[in-house]
Amino acid sequence: MIEIRNVSKSYGEVKALNQVNFSIKDGELFGLIGPDGAGKTSLMRMMVSLLLPSEGTLCINGLNVDGDFRQIRRIMGYMPGRFSLYPDLTVAENLDFFASVFGTTVQANYHLIRDIYVQLEPFANRRAGKLSGGMKQKLALCCALIHKPDVLVLDEPTTGVDAVSRKEFWEMLRRLHEMKITIVVSTPYMDEAAMCDRIALMQHGEILGIDTPENIAAGFPEDLFAVRTEKLYTATRILHTLPDVMSVHSFGQY
Fold first, then answer.
1. CA pair distance 106, 95, nearest whole angstrom
2. pLDDT tens digits, one per residue of 141-197
3. What beta strand segments (E) does the chain contain?
4. Average pLDDT, the chain
5. How far apart are CA 135 and CA 84, in angstroms?
6. Which ranges constitute the DSSP H helices of the chain?
7. Per-residue b or e along 31-47, where b marks 16 or more CB atoms closer than 10 Å to that residue's CB
8. Which end of the chain is less congested by CB atoms within 10 angstroms, N or C?
């Protein structure tokens, strides 16, 4: 489904990605893990055609991000690292808006979001900006799914939410995985990475290894990872996260 060949990305003199090579299978739940500055977010933005490679090729289901971006955006669902919906619109209005951007309706693809949206329905008339962190992520996932994408790209979707919401979110991803949607997710939490089919460990813009979570954990030194205590839980976490410097609001406009 996703082919990445000799991809490099530079921002001036800074090289965010250096000769990245790997592929992601159709229907696979694939994880990206790595410290701050590893290149995860740059790579994910290239997958959804918000960025172009400086070198190399990146194809989604045979479509090249450099030239085929209109077709690619129709088959991609994207959740960026920060909340990207419209805080002044209600839950229902956000969902209707994102459906209309992709030329569909909520009713047409409601079966994809039913299990998630039933938790949001009591708050359908509440402004999105007034939702809790976990509810915001559920709404963002609904908006990313409403046009029935073939590939779902999620950039650290559970960072900053409570332990219960993290667990619920990953239960939703497992159900989507069973529906054979290809999912690419970056996460700072090793307990989440363990639920992926395969993961890529990234550092300094390069791939250190791609394997099952068990083999990655066994094959690399523990000092790549750090333990951080959160308010409601303790989790193994890759150090820090990349700052989110782009808006997704333009994603569906082409």
1. 7
2. 999 999 999 999 999 988 877 888 888 889 989 999 999 999 999 987 888 899 999
3. 2-11, 14-24, 29-33, 55-60, 63-64, 76-79, 151-155, 182-186, 198-203, 206-211, 226-229, 234-237
4. 85
5. 13
6. 40-47, 69-74, 91-101, 110-117, 133-145, 163-178, 190-193, 213-219
7. bbbbbebbbbbbbbbbb
8. C
- Dihedral sign for Cα 160, 163, 167, 172, please: negative
Reading across the β-sheet that carries 14-24, which strands appear in turn? 14-24, 2-11, 55-60, 63-64
Q: Where are the alpha helices (DSSP H) in 8-109?
A: 40-47, 69-74, 91-101
The number of residues in the chain equals 254
What confidence tier does 234 reach under pLDDT thresholds 50, 70, 90? Answer: very low
Cα–Cα nearest to 54, from 20, 4, 7, 2: 7
Task: Average the pLDDT over 242-252 and give the result.
Answer: 36
